[in-house]
Write a structure and sequence with these properties.
This protein has helices at residues 2-13, 18-37, 44-58, 108-121, 160-165, 169-173, 176-199, and strands spanning 69-73, 82-88, 91-98, 125-129, 133-138, 149-154. With 200 residues, it is α+β, with helices and mostly antiparallel strands. A six-stranded mixed β-sheet has the order 1-2-3-4-5-6, sandwiched between helices. The longest helix has 24 residues, at 176-199. It is globular, with a radius of gyration of 18 Å. 30% of the residues are buried.
């Protein structure tokens, strides 16, 4: 009995197996392509149901458990809700702001809204997505909003699987995103300095 209990806990705390996640991602790609080709506007709720929630589930988040995935999360009762708060030990680690498939995610209104909310709530990471395109931001970086962007990718990008895994439940327990941010930020700083040096 104890062995079964331990096995269940271990299974629960790890992300879906790589092969299974790859299959889920491929299903999401096919679904997204079909929806994007349709002349009918998908809308935010349908985007969440058909693309975002299934991917979050495949990444190990229990989207049916409000102590792990809080839908329409509010930091304060008077706040506007964020579509998903991904929680570890009941504490939000990452916010996901969803938009309808095909919405323009480059609109600064969406970015500022999501980052501002995360900063107020004390949540370090924000994802802005329409289910196909995903943008990952460091809300706590002391930089202008546009420079808080760590990565933009689409489901069709070759590195989409690797980046999505960074928002899996197993990765959220650690702080892999912070390590990658620190490495990327140093690279950016060095690149900017070299560009400035040689352009002069």
């Amino acid at each position: 009995m104890l062995l079964i209990l331990v096995a269940n806990i271990t299974r629960r705390d790890t992300m879906t197996s790589m092969t299974e996640f790859t299959q889920n991602l491929e299903s999401a790609r096919v679904r997204a392509a079909k929806l994007r080709a349709s002349s009918t506007k998908v809308g935010e709720e349908n985007t969440e149901a058909s693309l975002i929630s299934p991917l979050l589930s495949a990444l190990g988040w229990d989207t049916t458990d409000p102590e792990e995935v809080c839908h329409e999360y509010k930091y304060k009762p008077s706040d506007n809700p964020v579509d998903y708060a991904l929680l570890v030990a009941r504490s939000p680690r990452l916010l996901v702001e969803a938009k309808g498939l095909g919405e323009n995610l480059t609109d600064h209104k969406w970015t500022n809204q999501a980052i501002g909310y995360a900063a107020t709530a004390g949540v370090p990471w924000v994802v802005l997505t329409d289910g196909y395109e995903w943008q990952l931001y460091n809300a706590h970086a002391l930089l202008p909003a546009e420079q808080k962007l760590l990565k933009t990718f689409t489901l069709d990008d070759s590195d989409a699987e690797s980046w999505l895994q960074l928002i899996s439940r197993s990765e959220a327990v650690g702080d892999r995103l912070a390590e990658i941010w620190n490495s990327e930020f140093v690279d950016r700083e060095v690149g900017d300095t070299l560009t400035e040096l040689f352009s002069g």
